[in-house]
């Protein structure tokens, strides 16, 4: 029986991957509204029944896609570079470089989600997960700065976290990288300098 199960599991994994890839491509190319369950099944080349065996609803599919994007673009490894820094100031700077490394790779999907989130409940849910995770990371960074006595006096942990979270706007990334043609490296370097000058006491 095990010999039979393994190919079935492999097929199941391939189908699941094809569905998630199809959903991502549809969002990037045609927008969130066009990403229906029927359209995803057609793009992936699977039956509607096969789609619903893997994902009970569009919301289930898109919530899973959020985690799939992180795995496909190896966002965890990029974030690990932030949290492995020896001190809060260098971690804050690495946060800027993480944004420059990772966010351009998921920008197309994320901008589509931003555009749709006010009218599409599934987009709103996907955006909500992202924003909560961002704010948790920002709060962790600012608490670390405060614990080391390096948070600039104008800020509390809460207000600094809110401002850092605000500076993670997709609009800022799109304007500088897409409209102004900045490289991710340039974006990360200048953002790191901005973060240090804004949030760090006695920046050196």
TrEMBL record:
Instruction: List UniProt keywords, sorted A-Z.
Output: DNA-binding, Transcription, Transcription regulation
The record's section on Gene3D superfamilies has: Tetracycline Repressor, domain 2
Q: Which InterPro entries match?
A: Homeodomain-like_sf, HTH-type_TetR-like_transc_reg, HTH_TetR
Residue intervals annotated as DNA-binding region are 36-55
| SUPFAM superfamilies (UniProt xref) | Homeodomain-like
Q: Which GO terms describe its molecular function?
A: DNA-binding transcription factor activity; transcription cis-regulatory region binding
Q: Which Pfam families match?
A: TetR_N
Q: Which residues form the HTH tetR-type domain?
A: 13-73
What is the protein name stated in its UniProt record?
AcrR family transcriptional regulator
Organism for this UniProt entry: Nonomuraea muscovyensis
User: Lineage of the native species?
Assistant: Bacteria, Bacillati, Actinomycetota, Actinomycetes, Streptosporangiales
């Amino acid at each position: 029986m095990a010999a039979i199960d393994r190919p079935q599991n492999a097929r199941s994994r391939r189908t699941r991957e094809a569905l998630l890839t199809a959903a991502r491509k549809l969002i990037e190319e045609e927008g969130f509204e066009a990403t229906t369950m029927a359209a995803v099944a057609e793009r992936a080349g699977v039956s509607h029944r096969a789609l619903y065996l893997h994902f009970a609803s569009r919301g289930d599919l898109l919530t899973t896609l959020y985690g799939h994007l992180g795995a496909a673009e190896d966002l965890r490894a990029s974030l690990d570079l932030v949290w492995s820094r020896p001190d809060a100031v260098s971690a804050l700077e690495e946060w800027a470089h993480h944004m420059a490394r990772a966010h351009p790779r998921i920008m197309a999907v994320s901008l589509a989600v931003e555009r749709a989130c006010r009218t599409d409940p599934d987009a709103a849910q996907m955006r909500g997960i992202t924003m909560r995770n961002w704010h948790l990371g920002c709060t962790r960074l600012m608490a670390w700065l405060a614990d080391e006595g390096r948070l600039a006096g104008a800020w509390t942990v809460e207000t600094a976290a809110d401002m850092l979270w605000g500076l993670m706007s997709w609009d800022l990334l799109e304007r500088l990288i897409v409209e102004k043609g900045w490289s991710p490296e340039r974006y990360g370097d200048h953002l790191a300098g901005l973060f240090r000058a804004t949030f760090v006491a006695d920046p050196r």
